[in-house]
Design brief:
Layout lengths: L1 E5 L4 H4 L1 H11 L3 E7 L3 H6 L3 E5 L11 H22 L6 E4 L4 H11 L3 E5 L20 H30 L7 H10 L4 E3 L16 E3 L15 H8 L5 E3 L9 H15 L3 E4 L12 E4 L4 H4 L5 E4 L3 H10 L3 E3 L6 H11 L13 H13 L1 H15 L3 H10 L3
Parallel strand pairs: 1-2, 1-4, 2-3, 4-5, 5-6, 6-7, 8-9, 8-11, 9-10, 11-12
């Protein structure tokens, strides 16, 4: 089959699909991954065909919910125009991420091509937890479902203009985004969720066709090794602590670097700082700064990991069995941070705006020196390693043939 995978967002929103795409390719499918130009090398290094999507996630959205919604609407409007161009004639299946699905539904309808959801976050309403973008705090069964439905309506507003543009371009009859979504739900369109049921069990009140299958992992060459300076640092002393914020906290590097270094030294720990978009930087025999290194290789060598609790980094830390100190910044990160803490694999989350060297040092001391965190992380790690999330997608694709 000719498969188009469509994903957009930050690195963590795209990288897992490289591993999924490789698995599908190894099964004999012709796989293209459509995403932003900034990830072209990531896609091609995985041996997948690349198609560019024009949306830019680096533009700042300004302050306030209304401005954030306007920025998001502009992002998806640009994304929708590119998605049409990315789908080549003869495509047999569309695999759509959380971000691209509302746009991909229109393309699938126009081209009469089957589509599967391949989501990294749970988005359907449930009594069991509040929407992932609401901060992670449960509102009770009725409140959680009500807030879940409200979140979907807010998403419909974000996609409204983009969907109207797409339907006109594709010569489809006008339809509101909410109506399109409800039609998809009515026919039980399948969505496979690429996170572990050990972390978020499948809600009992979800409809048939919504499944939690296990993670898809970013591809890296099996012959890849950590750079020599990293290996030298790791071998020079006890396991260090990883501190990184991925694509978060741009422009906050100086403050975060000071906090990170001071916290590590206050706790008497060595550290590996990952620059990321924030530009973390530290110096000294007890500190190593790295640019990029596969989490799959780095995290198993860490005594603990401090991160922003993005879905991908959260999963990588658990897979490695590394205790975490989550410092959520925005969006779905408080949800994943709360999950880590509930599993016992992380200390109490420290909201990004409340981060201080003293607080971080205290949490690091607990994560590294209290055995319960490592034991809990190790237990979840064993369950995650036994799962085959990509295999479930492969089976679902095969059932379409």
């Amino acid at each position: 089959m000719r498969i188009l995978l469509a994903a957009a967002g930050s690195y963590g929103d795209v990288a897992p699909y490289t591993g999924l795409g490789v698995r599908l390719r190894e099964a004999g499918h012709d796989v293209t991954l459509a995403t932003q130009e900034s990830f072209a090398a990531l896609v091609r290094c995985a041996g997948l065909a690349f198609r560019p999507l024009p949306a830019d996630t680096s533009a700042g959205g300004g302050a306030g919910k209304r401005q954030l919604m306007r920025t998001a609407a502009a992002f998806v409007r640009e994304l929708g125009a590119g998605l049409v161009d990315a789908v080549e004639p003869g495509t047999d299946v569309l695999l759509l991420s959380t971000t691209t699905a509302p746009l991909g539904w229109q393309v699938a309808e126009a081209m009469d091509v089957p589509a599967l959801g391949v989501y990294l976050q749970p988005t359907h309403p449930t009594r069991e937890f509040a929407p992932v973008v609401s901060g992670g705090r449960s509102l009770g069964g009725l409140g959680n479902r009500a807030m879940g439905r409200f979140s979907l309506r807010m998403a419909d507003r974000v996609y409204a203009d983009a969907v109207a543009d797409l339907r006109a371009r594709l010569s489809l009859p006008p339809a509101a985004q909410g109506a399109v979504r409800r039609r998809r739900e009515a026919v039980g369109w399948p969505v496979l969720h690429g996170f572990s049921p050990a972390v978020v069990p499948r809600p009992a009140d979800w409809r048939a066709g919504l499944d939690v299958v296990g993670n898809w992992w970013p591809h890296h060459d099996p012959d890849t090794a950590l750079p020599a300076p990293v290996e030298d640092f790791l071998r020079a002393g006890p396991p260090p602590v990883f501190i990184g914020f991925g694509s978060m906290a741009a422009g906050d590097g100086e403050r975060l670097s000071e906090i990170a270094v001071a916290a590590l030294r206050r706790a008497g720990l060595r550290g590996v700082l990952q620059e990321g978009r924030a530009g973390l930087m530290g110096h000294g025999d007890d500190i190593l700064t790295v640019d990029e290194a596969p989490h799959a290789l780095l995290f198993p060598r860490m005594a603990a990991v401090v991160h922003h609790a993005g879905a991908g980094t959260t999963a990588a830390g658990l897979r490695a069995g590394a205790p975490a100190v989550p410092v959520p910044v925005m969006a779905d990160q408080p949800f994943w941070a709360a999950r880590l803490a509930a599993l016992g694999a992380a200390t109490t989350p420290v909201p990004f705006k409340e981060l201080t060297a003293e607080r971080l040092a205290e949490q690091l001391g607990r994560a590294v020196r209290e055995d319960s965190y490592k034991e809990a992380a190790g237990s979840v790690s064993r369950r995650i390693r036994a799962e085959d999330g990509a295999g479930h997608v492969l089976k679902a694709v095969g059932n379409l043939g």
